[in-house]
Amino acid sequence: MPIIAHPTSGLSMYGVGLPVGLTLKIRQEVKNVVGWKMTYSYYGWKTVAEGLRILDHHVGILGAPSDLWHVFFYKRDV
Q1: β-strand 60-63 against 33-38: which pairing, if any?
Q2: Count of domains forming the chain
Q3: Side by side, which strands form the sheet with 33-38?
Q4: Of all residues in the chain, what percent carry a pLDDT higher than 70?
């Protein structure tokens, strides 16, 4: 069954979201993640979204706050 993850953590340079390394590790271990809902600062959004885009399986990037939803609305060639 497909799932959408919306993890949060303590405040860091990413805002309140998980660091990119842990995000990618979770995605590699949990194969049915089809979406990642993010509560990050702009830097966190950019870093984690770029990391998710290099995976071999598409993961939808979803925004919890309303101010950054457009940042990675399109698919990027990395």
Answers
A1: parallel
A2: 1
A3: 3-5, 33-38, 60-63
A4: 82
Q: In angstroms, rounded to a whole number, what is the distance separating the alpha carbons of residues 25 and 12? A: 18
44: amino acid identity, one letter: G
**Which two structure tokens, joined as six digits, stand for 19?**
């660091």
In a domain, 69, yes or no: no
DSSP 32-48: TEEEEEE-B-HHHHHHH
The answer to whether position 70 is within a domain reads no
Domain that holds residue 35: 3-63
Q: Taking Cα atoms as reference points, which of 62, 54, 14, 71 lies closest to residue 34?
A: 62
Q: According to the model, what pLDDT value does residue 78 have?
A: 46
Q: Which one is predicted more confidently, 41 or 58?
A: 58
